[in-house]
Amino acid sequence: VEEPLIVIRRDGPIANIVLNRPRKHNAMNRVMLEELDAAVREVDDDPDVRVIVFSGAGLSFSTGHDMRESEYDPVVANYRSSSEGMLEFESKVYYQYSLNIRNTKRPTIAQVHGHCLAAGLMLVGMCDIAIASDDAVFGVPVLRMGIASGEMGHEVWSIGARRAKELLFTGDNIDAATALEWGFLNHVVPRSELESTVAALAGKIAAQPPIALSLVKASINNTMDNMGQSNSMREHFMLHLFSHTVGEARANRKQREEQGKSAWTTAAPEAGGQKP
Ligand code: ZN
Predict the structure, then answer these.
(1) What confidence score (pLDDT) does residue 192 get?
(2) Which of 92, 118, 183, 212 is most buried by its number of CB atoms within 10 A?
(3) What is the mean pLDDT of the segment spanning 236-245?
(4) Ligand 1 centroid to 263 CA: how many Å?
């Protein structure tokens, strides 16, 4: 029996959305992202939900997009076979679904442990608040594949230009203490206290008047948009998409396919790879 890729656990007014592909370190494939988007819309439209929490089952929060899904998902393979297919697929499944998380009415909290790489980090970047355990590791090793970082270009907004450049140029991982210092996280706590810390904060926020809460969230997002965030993200996305067509990205992809390994088995062996 296939386990559900996304699990929704309700705890009173708090909806916990759990990434549930633990054997793949919660690498997100197309079906998982579709289920994630459906879960986000379902709980955000539920008037009894006041706060949405994202977490990952198993050893990691998420190691990013599943880089090998086109080998077993003919829908994705078909999209990836043409530029217009790439535009259609990534616009919806990577870009719009990310924006849908960023733009929920309800406040969102990312509860992060273990590896949080690439699109895993992108998901956290879309959340309003982020809390991690001290074992968490963050990184975007995407440039190493010849690709112009992730789809959203959100890093500059959450950690500033200098730190975003270092993180993205090198592809090196940073630890939780550094991510906290760089402003990517609100708090870092011991692993054993992660869940209770997030639950306490979510409970405190959930007790606030819900309409005022959603208006403040919308206002802060709107302020970021007036500073240029939404236009910058859109422009970054088109540039990212173009980078997929550049020779060095195609050569890197071909090399990985020939070697029969995913990007992350090269970039982050400690994450265990993402074979389907
Ligand atoms: Zn892409």
Answers:
(1) 98
(2) 118
(3) 96
(4) 13
